[in-house]
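no rush on this but wanted to send it before i forget. theres a chain ive been looking at and ive put its sequence and its fold in token form underneath. please have a look and point out which stretches look like helix strand or loop to you. thanks a lot i owe you, the record is right below:
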Amino acid sequence: MPRRKTSIKCARADRKKHIRNLKVKHPLKKAIKKLQSLLTEKNIVEAKTLLTQIFSQLDKAAKKQIIHPNTANRKKSRLTKQLAKIS
């Protein structure tokens, strides 16, 4: 447990940031898992529509600095390659 006032404030701010980040990361991870299940089922039409939504979520997360911009670009690239491989 922190003792100094600044450490207590910092811990409180870290908790708030952590919750805020999770609210963005969890739906993103669920969407990616759903996309991968659609790719295994070879449901290309739904996968393409979901991919555009995932791109939007990744860009927003990178803009808010929740994930690194290069990480967002890497994930977009890999998901696009997976979709292209199937179709």
Observations:
- The mean pLDDT is 96.
- DSSP finds three helices and no strands in the chain.
- Helices lie at 5-40, 44-63, 69-86.
